[in-house]
Amino acid sequence: MKTTNYLTKAKVLSIALLLGTAGVSHADPKPKFIKEGKWRGEFTVSESKVPFNFELKGKDAEHAVFTLINGSRRDDFHVKSIGQDSVYIKMNTYDAALVAKVEDDGSLTGEYRSLVPGFRGNSLPFKAEYGKTYRFVEPGKDVAPTADLSGKWEIKTYSKEAVPASIALLKQKGNKLTGVVMTVVGDTRELEGTVQGDEFALSGFTGPSPFIIKGKINADGTLSGEQGFGIYKNLKFDAAKKAEVELPDPYKLTFLKEGYKKLDFSFPGIDGKQVSLSDNKYKGKVVIVEIIGTWCPNCTDQTVFLSPWFNKNHNRGVEAIALGFEQKDSLEYAKYTLGKLRDKYAINYDIAFGGLADKKLVSQKLPALNKFIAFPTTIIIDRKGDVREIYTGYTGTVTGKYHEDYEKKFNKLLDELIAEPAPETAAVVDQPARQGK
Hints:
This protein is of the alpha+beta class.
């Protein structure tokens, strides 16, 4: 069966038509394009404004690079022209795009739009102005901060549904505030913002739905505010500075049920072949199983770490499998999304499709696990096929020491497992453990 092209010319044209900009204008035959330089944009989320910054290099779509700016982080995207006065910026491996019209005054108006089949109605309007490099407050209008928020903060979030514990790592210099919010499922990536008097705000937009956190510094030094997740919900929170606070141990959250030593599965690969841990290619090898989704930014960050590591270490007797759960329960759709991920990040290990991105479904399809908590989850298997470690979530480079510790432990364990003899050369070979009850 031929793989469906989920980014067809017809779709791009339909987006242009929705904006009312398709076709050639007789009044203005010269195509309009985004002006080179730095920009400031604002999403409208309910009644709130979520600012973001970007830079455009290149005078036309053939050469242009659109770069989102978040503190020290940079994310690059390709720009396509639509008709005479509009642009389409696909968010790389995330199935979403910025679709915008270049107005007569040079500004941009448009939407951040989901491209996932069945969710294409989800969108956020935005406007962007050229030459503005500030994020929240115009130059010259800063108000002296009443406190320095640098440090580690314990966050308590209020919701009817269960919300993972979280902490914030913040750095403040004058009015400028940067940081990251960490949970057991991952982190927000780098955030950038400001402290003005007794109020603070941070935002981030790297391709997935934009994020904002804003609030007030209370008289006792605690924080109160609200977190916004773009096209998703907003949550209120309180926070207190606690240098000793830590999240639950990510190495102990997910584990094998009693009676299990091994993991077993068989899922369709995006290349048309079944992928199973019982395949000969995995026997006697150390295997890394990564449970991911292309919609998940922390999964992308984990892939950015794992893919080059694998390419460097594959010949040492290591294999890996990316097990993707996507926003649509369709193998053809998964071939498109996971294929984009493979090509973007030079993945040379097997990629299989597990089904719809639903934690309960993952638990059902991998019954050896006590529960499934987060995308991504990393499972490391030794040469005998025994599960040796399960890591829940991912701590990106912005978390500093947390990421450094993760990388050190990952490499230490893999080095140890690679050094172990394969079962056929071992002095003692364990009997196969039972796969179920």
